[in-house]
Structures are given as C-alpha cells and as structure tokens.
Amino acid sequence: MKRTHTTLAMLSLVGLSLAAIPAVEAQAAPAAPATAPAKKGHKKAAATNAAPAPADQGAGGSKTVTATGRRDPFLPLVNESKPGGPPLPPGKAGLVVSTVHIDGTVRSPEGMLAVVSNPDQRVYFLREGDRLYDGDVEKIGLDGVTFKENSKDAFGKPVEKLVTKRIYPSAGEQQ
Fold this sequence. Notes:
Layout: H1 2-28, H2 43-48, E1 101-108, E2 111-117, E3 123-127, E4 131-132, E5 135-140, E6 144-152, E7 158-166
Antiparallel strand pairs: 1-2, 2-3, 4-5, 5-6, 6-7
C-alpha cells in the first residue's frame, strides 16, 4: 500500500513537471514571428507572441531589427553613408581647409599658384585671396600655403586662425 502510494505520488509529480515544461520554454524563448505556425501544445505561447516587435529604422530606411526583436545579421555594422549635413558648393568654394591636401606650388608670372586636392582626389589651383568654404588663401610660398580659417567657438563667437599646410610636413606636424 505504501509502495503504491509513493509510486502514484511520483507519477503525479512527473506529470505535473512535464505539463509545466512548455510554459517555462515559452517564457524563455524569444518572440516568434507572427507568420510562423504555432506548434502543437504551444497554443498559449503562440498567442502571447502574436504581436510582432516594432522594427527600428536605420540610416537609409533599411530595417536593422527584425520582427523577432533581433538585429539583422546580414546588415553592415558600420554605416557606409557619408556624414550628413548640407552639400558643399562646387569648385573652390566647396573646399574645406581641414581636408585640403597641398600637392605642390608653382611660380607663375601672375604670382604663386597652389596645387591642392580634396578627399575625393579632385585637383584645384588656388591663388592668394581665393575664397574657400571656411576660409581664404592668405599666402602661398614655395614650401606650403597659409590659410585664414573662419570658424566658431563653443559659444558661437566667430574665430579666425591662421593654418599653415606644407607640401612636406616636418616630423610631428599634421598635414
């Protein structure tokens, strides 16, 4: 009698634990997509996961998070688009002093010329007094170019500074 009672108690305990497993799995499992068919015996779990997670929109309007709430593994981690902001004007007026590279200088009968290139490898010829996007060409020498860069400080006050870029920068000098 005692043995039958213990066997019945064990069987009922095993039966209860087997009945509780699908509920525990449903809580631990990530949300399934709404279009996935529900498994047999998991009707309650399928009903709770029916609402898809909102998808975040990344740069360019592509989805970065799927309906399951996970990141799409096939999208690049690094944003490949160029930094935002208004487009720069064409020609010399679109050159930014900090991104200009000095390729050389030339002495001509009309004065000195500077051969410069932008990050897109387009070449421009500058003369003293030419206006750039954020400054002016102050002086052109045989070893480099001096620009007067116009910028603003943290409080919005206009600041002018002289920036000298050399053809062959010396050790420790930034180009």
